[in-house]
Amino acid sequence: MMQNVASMLAYHLKALGVKTVFGIPGKSIVPLLFGLEKHELHFVLCRHEAGAGFAASGYALQNRSLGVAIGTSGPGGTNMITAAGQAKAFNLPVLFITGHPSMKETGRALAQDSTPFGTDMAKLFEPVTLFSRRVERADQFPMYLKHAVETAFSGTKGPVHLSIPHDVLSEEIDFFPIHLQTSAQVISLQIDKISPILNKAQKPLIILGKGVHSSHAYQEVQSFAELWGIPVVTTPGGKGTFATHHPLSLGSFGLGGTPQAMAYLQSGIDLAVVIGSSLNDMSMAGFIKDMYPTQVVHFDCESTYIGKTFSAPTTFIEGDIKLNLQKVLLAGAPDDTSRSRGEVMQAFTTAVKEAAAAVSTTSIGSKNAPYISAVEAIKVLRANLPADAVVFGDEGSHSFYAIQNFNIYEPGTFHFDAAFGTMGYSFGYAIGAKIASPDKTIMCLAGDGSLFMHGTEISTAVNEEAAVIFIVFNNSRLDMVDKGMAGHMGRSIGSIYNTGVKVKEFAESLGAKGTRCYTAEEIEKAIRKALNNIQSSVIEVMVDPLEVPPTMLRG
What we know:
Layout: E1 3-4, H1 5-15, E2 20-23, H2 30-38, E3 42-45, H3 49-63, E4 67-71, H4 75-78, H5 81-89, E5 94-100, H6 121-125, E6 132-134, H7 141-153, E7 160-165, H8 166-170, E8 172-173, H9 194-200, E9 204-208, H10 211-215, H11 218-228, E10 232-234, E11 249-252, H12 259-266, E12 271-275, E13 295-300, E14 314-318, H13 321-330, H14 336-359, H15 374-384, E15 390-393, H16 397-405, E16 414-415, H17 425-436, E17 442-447, H18 448-454, H19 457-463, E18 469-474, H20 479-489, H21 503-509, E19 513-517, H22 520-532, E20 537-542
Helix pairs in contact: 1-2, 3-5, 3-17, 11-13, 12-14, 15-16, 15-22
């Protein structure tokens, strides 16, 4: 049976399990909107194309499925490029679809042109996606769609892009099936080398990164740490991959790191077992040469950054992290010497935690009335949220306060990106995640700078009746930049808003429930009310503008 390309695309998206598509309409993609309606896919009208891409990414992350974002040609497409870059950093399978005025009229002067005569959307998306093509004829569409979807789910997973002109979307084609050819997950040939290395190590440490989230290897990581009795730290991107109350947890290292993690590394380690981290500058902030291990075992799905951060003999365990850890666990238990060492390590970890707690200088309570300390605010939020609440931390000081002080009770409930680092992305991610899992408590943790970037997506949440809890720390500045510049250069330039934002009133103007909080009691009351709201809530927390965040280790 013949259908036009737009209808066929919608049919296959539905067959792939997609129920919701995010975007902003425009002339070049109008046929696709009618295709979505025909096949009963819900279209979410976002407030900015980047917001649509962020929401599709949050939907993909929470649903563990394909996310879809659409935008018109020209600026509609370029606005989504940042969202594609962020999805790539999170290894999320998101299909970005952009329009084009007309393939048949290419070469004429066209508004919002996206060919080589204009912006060439396919080329612009190439660096931030795994696959990007323009569909120039209807007969190309079946093959390009198959390639795009297969690529999104293969290997490292990630975003893909198709630019489909208006006239191509309207062309009719015969029905075609899609049978996804999933690539075999790679099992490393180095697995047998791990046990001897672990048995020999006297003072090992596990370092967890965002790749643990991508592979959903939470249980395997915990079982691995427990079997060998190895202490665990998480990088900023790895926050949420390991329960902070676990006896082997030393909390976070790098920016937002805990005193106990720093104390343990300062005492010297001989083996670092790195799992799913590129060990970037935020993850390794404070990691000086005296802390370098004598050997590294590195689990990751690709080799780009292996051995690039510091020099040490490295055994690279390439491939799917979850499957490779399962193979290691199946290989058997440690020998008696290593088992004894594991018992000693657990006792040592407890001692380090106690010593670090005793010398901790972190103060609670703001010294700058009437504001609240960001540290206290984070702890109050944690105490009043459900254990399984899913938190999306935006870029900025607010998230690093959380990385240091927000306890994780269930792995997989905190997401933060220390790689691409888009300000404002968490608004869309939280909305997409809430639409994917309406019964889950979903929270966005952002700053006023992030709100200025993409805070209008709160309106999308309101319109979709997505009861996201948006927490906005407000101190009228780009805090992480402001404090970093002042700390390292002696003064800051261009990082303070002369006229800030009244978050409560802004939220209310978008239809959300807005609350402004100065005290712990006010935050507690606002959270309790938000948990019972059936619509979006925005809680503005007036944090101390003079408080120094735990980000000063980064030069």
